[in-house]
Amino acid sequence: MNIRGVLGSVAGLRTMAIAVCTATNLFFVSIFVVSPNDQTGFSLGPLKFTLFTLMIALFVALRFAMKSLTSAKDEDLDELQLKLRDDAYRLGYLVVRRVGLGALIAISLVSGPVIRFYYDNVARAGLAPNNSSYFSIALKAWFEPANLMIFVQSLLFVLTFTAYCFPLVILAWRQANFLATLTADERLAAMAVSPRLDVKASNLQESAQVIAKHVLRFRLQLSVVAIGWPILLSAAAWGPYLSGGIWSNYIMPAGFAFAIPFMLFTLWVHFAGMFKQRVILNELKSLAVSDTSLQKTYRTVHRLAIATGVFSVALPVLSVASAAPSTNRYLFGGWVLALVCSLGTLAAQTSSFMVADRTAKRFATDAAKLIATGAEPAAS
Amino acid sequence: MGRKPKSEEAAVVSQIERFRGLAGMSRQELADAVGVHYQTIGYIERGEYSPSLVLALKFAKALGASVEDIFQLEEN
To answer: Cβ B43–A178 below 8 Å, yes or no?
Structure first.
């Protein structure tokens, strides 16, 4: 059974649905907890980092398993599928609304007495009255302005993540319930990929337009990454220095402040590009003759894209993982590592996009030739 | 006056499975004939979903029966 079969099975869907809910709840609880060994407060410690990674990984897997329903256009779904999807998103919205309201009420109720206690017992004393008191350490950590910001950021992240993820959980659970009622053969049929473009010559024109649109999008993505990335890294590195800041105090936080979001952004662009490549491949399967050199090239490119994708994710993740537990945020080595990761990511993305762009153009040329000659493509 | 609560609304009983058997069609064939996903047929046959009027008419046409024969309101 392949990965799609495992993720689309009854046990796979139920396991993912439970696991993602558990990981999200644990992460939600963890943002209120300050480790006594880490007085820097709400920094992304190893446990939170693990939960965070787990959440994202499970979300990606769940999205992959349910993509025939969640990512499909409205016109490709029937009325029941639309209703199931709408119901799931409506329920997701209600959950986010209630979780958000619950968190707001809880924080409002607790914040008054906690603030009073902090100023009476912790702030006035200068240091915690009892250094071994977890409560005092937590209070000191919470009232650090930067940590408060991270706390609010984490809370917003959980709510946003829930909004994205919870509908998928509902859909996956319902899908598992449905699959449980089927025989093995029926399950295979139910998991079948929705039909793509058929092999009629009339679809060639439509496919050529789709390809042209993808080629344009690839170029735009490449432009964003190639132009935006070095400029922003330069700004992150030189901005504080030029504005009179001190290297050792400002370069690292400023570098991270710029580099991490744009690293995530470029990763997003990269992965979006990878998925578009798959879309093109699927749509062109019906156009191109089986086992042509073009298809072989495309498969090679796709493997390259996966390899560069893994590379792009692995280095920044290792960088964050190694930097997160560190109490010294101004470590120059960390900045160099982030820079190397950024440049490595940029190089991988650029090469992947360039090859994908060239391949897409070759596909477009091939399709145009088929249209010009009026040839019927072979069924794949 | 006003709309009844969801729990009090009449359920629709579907005879699709019986008519599909009479027509000798598989779920997939019927799904293809009316333009819905295979899964949708299962939901309707088990009474977990009541189709729209348009879809009900498509079922009637595909199965060679009237809408009233295939779908009835559940008697309380």
So the answer is: yes
